[in-house]
Write a structure and sequence with these properties.
The protein contains 14 helices and 16 strands. By secondary structure, it is an alpha/beta fold. Helix 3 runs parallel beside helix 4 and helix 5 packs across helix 6. The radius of gyration is 21 Å and the shape is globular. The mean pLDDT is about 95.
């Protein structure tokens, strides 16, 4: 088929006015000005009219399981207060509650322009059934902890690997997610690193999310350190450097690692992340919810770190008035633009598309419109008189006009 629109924004290439995208099967074969296209006559031509056609957004960190917690947990005084609150809230949930929450989250992402999501899966029993219920391209990272249950790290990892090996799907993938340095043992981190390298898997994890976590590892003290010590965590891995340095010692930094948050950095951390080619995923609304110190965007970018964007969960998103928040990458981009005045719109769009694709090992395949990339794309209304197309895209609010994933309309255009 051929899709024509008043604007094509490939992200990986300059915008095209009055452009066309040629699609064969689930792949893009050409992105070109309409006047340069030479149709054979057999293609179905869909004229999207006064619209912007751009790649589907890549949400590099999400918790679909927690969607229905939107607005239920007021911003806490401390991070450990939040851990206690969400643990208590989850205690009342059943399998069906998690399934309903997951599906609602997937629908919210789809209608607001996400086509690929890196999801932290706390309820692996939901898979693969929920995969079959969404057209989204899903990376399910199976969450592993083990501190509270006191299970041996090898046993925790084996269970996750067995689940992953049982899952086969042409579009979706399952991989590993050791939750965070404070909630896992160093041995689990090392075993995960070894397994992921051997299997050529991606790993998603939370690093340096809170000041309490940073204090725990950097200084072997503080509220989180003392709280976990009372709960019989072996804190001998603390006091040896920052959370980032801890992951480096455990060999769990690398080109295959997505490090979510990274809100607190010690001297040298940005260099460690850059040299190991670890990807950092910033979640602006979650960052705002906890009132963290300013995200060190420029420091990380200047070091050469690949920066991506994610939504995190709605359990860490502020409720605005009576309206419950929804999972929405455009809302994340708008807040990031508001907080980071020096970030150009094109840079922010890359964080939500090509950078996320690179983090997931799909550079050139998703997050851009280019020859041989998957036909994952979205359609927005074209701006009025705005000459800055990237800024106009960033300003979009609400649902997208259409969405295509893997060459099929997930949300058909209204023509």
């Amino acid at each position: 088929m051929i899709l024509r629109a008043s604007f094509i924004f490939p992200v990986s290439a300059p915008p095209i006015e009055d452009g066309a995208v040629l699609i064969e099967g689930n792949k893009i074969r050409a992105v070109t000005p309409w006047k340069n296209l030479r149709p054979s006559g057999s293609e179905k031509i869909t004229d999207l009219g006064n619209a912007i056609l751009l790649p589907g957004l890549v949400n590099a960190h999400c918790h679909l399981d927690y969607t229905d917690m939107a607005g239920e947990l007021p911003p806490p005084r401390t991070f450990t207060d939040w851990i206690a609150a969400i643990t208590a809230y989850k205690a009342g949930w059943s399998y069906s509650d998690y399934a309903r929450s997951w599906l609602r989250g997937a629908h919210q992402l789809l209608k607001t322009g996400t086509t690929t999501v890196a999801d932290i899966e706390a309820m692996p029993d939901l898979l693969p059934e929920v995969w079959d219920a969404t057209p989204l391209r899903i990376f399910s990272f199976l969450e592993m902890t083990g501190i509270k249950s006191r299970r041996p790290p090898g046993e925790v990892l084996r269970e996750a690997v067995q689940k992953i090996d049982s899952l086969r799907h042409p579009r979706h993938r399952a991989m590993l997610s050791p939750h965070a340095p404070y909630s896992t043992r160093a041995e689990l981190l090392r075993l995960t690193a070894e397994t992921a390298r051997r299997r050529n898997w991606r790993v998603s994890t939370h690093i340096a999310e809170s000041e309490q976590e940073f204090d725990m590892f950097q200084n072997a003290g503080g509220a989180m350190h003392n709280w976990l010590k009372r709960n019989e965590r072996d804190n001998s891995d603390c006091g040896l450097g920052s959370p980032v340095a801890h992951f480096a010692r455990c060999q769990l930094l690398g080109e295959n690692v997505l490090a979510a948050h990274v809100n607190y950095l010690a001297r040298g951390d940005a260099t460690l992340l850059a040299r190991s080619r670890t990807h950092v995923v910033h979640c602006p609304r979650s960052h705002d919810y906890f009132k963290h110190t300013k995200f060190e965007c420029e420091r990380l970018a200047n070091a050469g770190v690949n920066l991506c964007l994610g939504t995190d969960s709605l359990a860490t998103t502020r409720k605005l008035g009576k309206q419950k928040p929804e999972l929405d990458m455009f809302a994340e981009m708008r807040l990031f633009a508001d907080r980071e005045k020096s970030a150009a719109p094109e840079q922010i769009l890359r964080m939500a598309t090509v950078n996320g694709a690179r983090a997931l090992g799909l550079a050139g395949k998703i997050g851009e419109l280019s020859r041989s990339s998957f036909a994952d794309l979205i359609v927005l209304p074209a701006p009025g008189k705005s000459k800055d197309l990237a800024a106009a895209i960033l300003a979009h609010a609400g649902n997208v006009s259409a969405s295509m994933i893997d060459g099929r309309w997930a949300i058909p255009p209204r023509l």
